[in-house]
Amino acid sequence: MSKNTAKKGKAAAAPESTPAKAGAKGSSGKGSKGIVLDAPAAPEPARSIFPGWTGKTPSSLMHEHCQKMGWEKPTFDVKRTPRGFVSTVVLGKRNKKTGQIETASFTLQDNFKPTAVEARHYGATYALHRVNSHKSLMMVLPPGPRDLWSQLDGEKAKAGSSEQHLYLADPFISQAAKLQHQQQQHQQALQEKARARAATPTKDNQEVTVQHGPSEYASRSAFGDQSNDSQIKKNWDKLPMVHMNQEMRAEVEDVVKKQMAGELYQMYVEEYGTQGEPQYNTMLSKTLTRMGFRDRHVAEALQYCNDQSSALDWLCLHVPEDDLPVSFLQSNYNPTITTINHTSASLGREYAIKRLSAIGFTSTTCGQIYDLVGGDEDKAVEELFRRLAFPKGQVPEDMVQDIEMEPESPEQLQELREDEMLALESIYDDRFARDGPAGARIKLDTTLHNTKDAPKIELEIRIPKTSTYPFNQPPLFIINEPDLPSYLRLSIIQRTMQYAYRSMVLAMGGPIVYDVVEWIQDNLRGILDNPPSLVQLTEGLISVDASQEEESQDSLAALTDPQASESLLVKTTQTKLSLNGSAARKDNKRDARRLNIKPNGPGSIAMLKNYESLCASDVSFQALQMARAKLPAWGFKDQLVKAVKDNSVVIVCGETGCGKTTQVPQFILDSWIQDCIGEHANIVCTQPRRIAAIGVAERVAVERSTDIGKQVGYAIRGENKSSRNTNLLFCTTGILLRRLHSDPTLQNVTHVMVDEVHERSVDSDFLLILLRDLIRKRKDLKLILMSATINSEFFSGYFDGCPVIEIPGFTHPVEELYMEQIVARTGHNPDFRGSNVKRTKMTEAMEEEWERTKAQYASEGLNEETIAKVKTMELYAERIDYDLVVASVSDILKRKEPAGSVDGAILIFMPGVMEIKKCIDALSVFSRTVPQTLDIMPLHAALTPKEQNSIFAPVRKGVRKIVVATNVAETSITIDGVVYVIDSGRVKETRMENNMTKLVETWTSFASTRQRKGRAGRTRPGIVYKLFSRKQSLKLAAQQDPEILRIPLEQLCLSVKAMGEKNVEGFLSRALTPPSLTAIQSALKTLEDLNALDGASGELTPLGRHMADIPADLRIAKMLIFGSVFRCLEPVLVIAACMSVKSPFLSPMEKRTEAQAKKMQFATAKSDLLTAWKAYDTWDKLRESGAGRSELKSFCEENFLSTNTLFEIQNLKVQYLEVLESIGFTSKDADQQTRSRRRSERYSCEQDNANSDNMALVKAIILSGLYPNVIKIKMPDAKFDKMIAGAVERETVTKEIRMFTKDDGRVFLHPSSILFQSNQYQVPFLVYFSKLETTKIFVHDATMVPMYGLLLFGGAVHVDHLGRGLEIGDGFIKLRAFARIGVLVNQLKKLLDAVLQAKISNPDLNVSESPVVETMVKLVSTDGI
């Protein structure tokens, strides 16, 4: 290490030893002199670090080894970091030939010590192992380093053959070998390039066919022996290649650099994690220079970057393409597909632009100027040079002639020019050549390279036709050197033209060419040795404005960089984007403030007077109060109010029908009104479902004689009926969670009531963690927990032993009829033909159990026929028998109602919307066969408030009300007049299925059956018909498992992170039933895979922050956001709904072949999910055209589609659309265009579907949600048959195609996939939705994805800067591509994050209009060419 380097304290960061030659001799002092500390530290005795150790320390052993090997004394560079001290050991060896010292550095990664001395000894142990691992030195080391040596031995044993060079005894030999091999590879690539250029000249109209074939460029050399490197190169050459032609690269770089305007310094400091100004690294500088980069560019890159990877990214992005080393991008690399038919005019324009761009200007700029001047090539040349010479658009005063001169005649002009040409010819002799009547070429003394036979640079002098030189306009000076990068040529031309204009002023009509040529020869080498700044080059491209810098370099960039696609003068963008998404956010953590409650305020007095007036004179109000007084809860009013006043937390446990949900909030509000502090009351009561929040709010508003939205209101997603005067707000749990996100201390809220806490949803458990923490900060906040069935001791213990108040309920006796009794009463004959539910196979144990059950049934009086029917139904117990529902309703209708009473309403519990629809269909058919009118209506959370309200309306006399509901009717919602309940015993729970969170149908709990039974005894004795056997009821779980223990925690962890919590594990450990640490860590890893969480910082990405706002599976949330951003929303909505529900296709066992043939008619874009969308879209268009139910049913039967599933997809699609609208991810015109429709028939608007026909883009969006579920396809080797006309390639046999996933190895497409018989794959990658292992591992719902879909929407892209290619995610997917392409892709992804980050602070921002989005769409659509 040189002394200068030691002073700077800069240490090599790479773990591998990196050689470098230093001009100065390495430090000959003690190793401690190289330590860089905030304060000097004296060496501590060994015994203080290694107690009891009397042997040598690792540092002493390292010194002895260096002395024995004849090396320089080792130096130790110790640095302090926030995590502790870390040491870099630098070894040196003098090269006897050159006299210089070669160095190798070793840094023990991720091993931080509390003191500098410890770090030094452990660093010495690591370096000693690297050069002495073939010896067993473990026993001569002290205890701590001894353990480290053992650990390093284990790592060496696991190292592959490509890493064995790291453990050579002489690190300097291994380094020299690596560098020599790298140089040989580079020279070989240059030679191959030259041979290819000589042998196959490229024609202007040559068509290059793009294939995923062998490599066309030099592979990166592996750090190992040559044979191993050759094998690695062969492996990479077999991989598919990603292309991006010059035009596309130009467009991408133009967008990237424009979005980076003004953020270059900050962006790279933030992006690469540097602290302060990076320090110059001599070894890294030499390494980059050896790769072929210019010294000036390397030095500039190291102003912003600390490590090799980030420096190479920086250089790939900023160095112009024609100046990049060959391994980063070949100069002739431009894959294209020619499809243009030229006219004579267009062909002339193309050749003119090629001649102009040969000067050094970009084709885009030349085309713009050529069109600007009306297609005149001579005028275009003059305009280009004028803009180059005067980037600000104004000619400096020292370049303006005071007197305008004109020639006396054309003859005089010609004579003066001829005289000058003769003089130049005599001066430059054979270096001068005439080029037409108005031009010449001169070979300059300066050469391109400082070598003996290097060619001389040629200068062309061209006098435009319209020029009056030497009187006014100077000639044009052009550098003709194709091997000189265009930006350097234009830099020379720019300065030359500026000097020429000044010379014209001084010459006063005299010749100037000789003066200019001599000036060029004097200054050319300096310009070549000091190229223009790359940052200025980039900034000039995007921010050339007359009001900015006076330096002419600004516009040079716009003319030189091959990516400028707009006018030369582009104003600086005002919006600065942070590419790592780390824009400053406001801290939403506020200090908790106590409520300032003052009695007898004007508002409180007015509320008290109004309340007293209602009690005294309002008859209807008095009647309502009398009805309230009959509820069991009324008798506990005073006790409840006192308990709430005296305690922070109170638990209310009340039986169904006691009135706790509607009355407890009113008791508290009334007490505050009577205490004359009513205006300060701010009570928030949560309900688990939207329908409950609306229903309870409206009921309470009626009881208080007020309109909804005034004193009493409600808030659900997408609808808020409250005002400033609202004292009692009913809302869903999610609404309160979002409020806590923006207002963590719930300022001005006095009471929080959480109803139905027994359900133990993830949201309610999450809410309880937050509220428990909050009440410890806000002593004035009151929390009331309510439920009908609650483990009061468990909840009380969680809240520090808070009091529990139990309110008994009153219900009439309810008779229970189980399935076997219903079958006996009705004579029902089960028919399960065509059922999709598999019949349970009877085992020997089950047969024995059945015999016992059969005997019990016989003892109860059931005959043999009934018992046989019950056995059949037991085998299909998981299938809902809708005919049994009809039989139960028929039995109810035959019962005699008590005299003087209305017909009792029937409440039927079904697990989901689709089952409700099937049940209603069956009942509708039955209703035509009975004399009584049946009013059948659904009840579920997806209904509109208006549809929900119809449930509670009374029916006219003689009409029987039948409500078919989900478990939403178990609690909170009370339907008057219910006497009969039909319980299917089924419920849909959120569970993990097929690697995705889904609603899965399962058996309900015993507690839920009690709740359902209780609904039948509210007004008079009732009956519950249970569609499951008594035996099955004994198997039901006592309580539903907490949702936090049965589902993946990705959504919860995302929400916790969105709340600002750093330690997710610690936060969730405070839950009622904490999840396992493994489940949490798995969830965090999934968030990283989905790009919702930054693995390095642990912070949410901008995408993750938006995903946190969508209450759906994270994969679906990601797809929905991207579907909206990239304007292909409608197909993405349908696909997301299909993933959440199931495929609409049916496959009956007896007609499987016919069903698959029908499915293939909808096959779309080699995607099973798009095929499902196509089937839905066809059905939806038929429905939109006015087709009746019978026609739709016929269509579905003919094409083997499930009508119920299609309707369920439609319903869920609308819900997803509403969610996107609520968070600002749909166009503003969407509401006006779609609100006029019925809710179930709404569509996304036209603006959001501009790209919905772009199947490549839609498949990329599918990939964004399904990644990392990626399949690699390995095609068999091509086989040929000999024919008379020659060899003909055989068609690929489908069975020979092999497919692999990262975790499972070989997998197989399920026979139901439309790709099952496919034998051609344009891209060798699929994504899949789910997999199932039977005899083999089958994948379902596969989609072939575009290459750029993988790059832009898959995992993180890791760039191999030295030429092999790109790796996606964890390396399972490898692609061949030049480094520049990988860097551009990464920058686009970061810029998309930046735009999404901007939308967080500005929700009205239209992300879809961003140039970044448009460019990504184009890349995916065109595959880069």
From TrEMBL:
Start-end of Basic residues biased regions: 1-10
Specify the Helicase ATP-binding domain's residue ranges.
641-808
**Which residue windows does the record flag with biased composition (Low complexity)?**
11-25, 181-191
Q: Which residues form the RWD domain?
A: 419-527
Molecular functions per Gene Ontology: ATP binding; helicase activity; hydrolase activity; RNA binding
Q: Quote the protein name from its UniProt record.
A: P-loop containing nucleoside triphosphate hydrolase protein
What SUPFAM superfamilies does the record tag this protein with?
dsRNA-binding domain-like (SSF54768), P-loop containing nucleoside triphosphate hydrolases (SSF52540), UBA-like (SSF46934), UBC-like (SSF54495)
**Which Pfam families would you find in this protein's record?**
DEAD, DSRM_DHX29, HA2_C, Helicase_C, OB_NTP_bind, RNA_hel_CTD, RWD, UBA_DHX29
Tell me the organism.
Mortierella alpina (Oleaginous fungus)
PROSITE patterns linked to this entry:
HELICASE_ATP_BIND_1, HELICASE_CTER, RWD
Region of interest (Disordered), residue spans = 1-40, 181-231
Q: Which UniProt keywords apply?
A: ATP-binding, Helicase, Hydrolase, Nucleotide-binding, RNA-binding
Family of this protein: Belongs to the DExH box helicase family.
Instruction: Identify the CDD domains for this entry.
Output: DEXHc_RHA-like, RWD_YLR419W-like, SF2_C_RHA
Q: What is the lineage of its organism?
A: Eukaryota, Fungi, Fungi incertae sedis, Mucoromycota, Mortierellomycotina
